[in-house]
Amino acid sequence: MPEPDRPAGRESAVETIQRELTSFARRARATAARMHPELSLVSYTLLSHLDERGGCRATDLAAHYALDKSTVSRQVAALERAGLVMRRVDPDDHRVQVLLPTPAGAEILAQVTVSRRQIFGERLADWPAEDLTRFAAYLTRYNESSRDD
């Protein structure tokens, strides 16, 4: 096995990370589809962001997730058709519309969030707390370093 600090070891580790993150993303999409057929992983993520932020503009969603505005527009339209998202006029700027979860959207989001936590909890049940803390810190570090990409 290559040593981690040598170029071949770093390259091998990066390859493994890339492969495993891709596998993780595939599993996450499949799990999301099983939990709620109307709530894809992207839809869940957008709805969750709207809920956490107390609403925001579609352009804010696009910027936050580095998505094309048309992609966000299609996802938001699907969430609106499903009755999970609504638009309200921004009280600070009446020219702007803010997206918010509807009561039905908030309820489904809460149900899916509980299910996701349970699935993650079961998958990580035999991990020592120290490993979980380290893994969480590594994921946070990785995601924070790529926010400007």
Describe the 3D structure.
The protein is mainly α and 149 residues long. It contains 6 helices and 2 strands; from the N terminus they run H-H-H-H-E-E-H-H. A two-stranded antiparallel sheet has the order 1-2. A hairpin with a 2-residue loop joins strand 1 and strand 2. The two termini are 32 Å apart. The model has no long low-confidence stretch (mean pLDDT 87).
Produce the secondary structure layout:
Layout: H1 7-35, H2 41-53, H3 58-65, H4 69-81, E1 85-90, E2 93-101, H5 103-123, H6 129-145
Write a short abstract of this structure:
With 149 residues, the chain is mainly alpha-helical. The chain has helices at residues 7-35, 41-53, 58-65, 69-81, 103-123, 129-145; strands spanning 85-90, 93-101.
List keywords for this structure.
149 residues, mainly alpha, single chain, 6 helices, two-stranded antiparallel ribbon
What is the helical fraction, as a range of percent?
55-70%
The number of helical segments is 6
Counting DSSP E segments of at least 2 residues, the number of strands comes to 2
Q: What is the distance, rounded to the nearest whole angstrom, between the alpha carbons of the first and last residues?
A: 32 Å
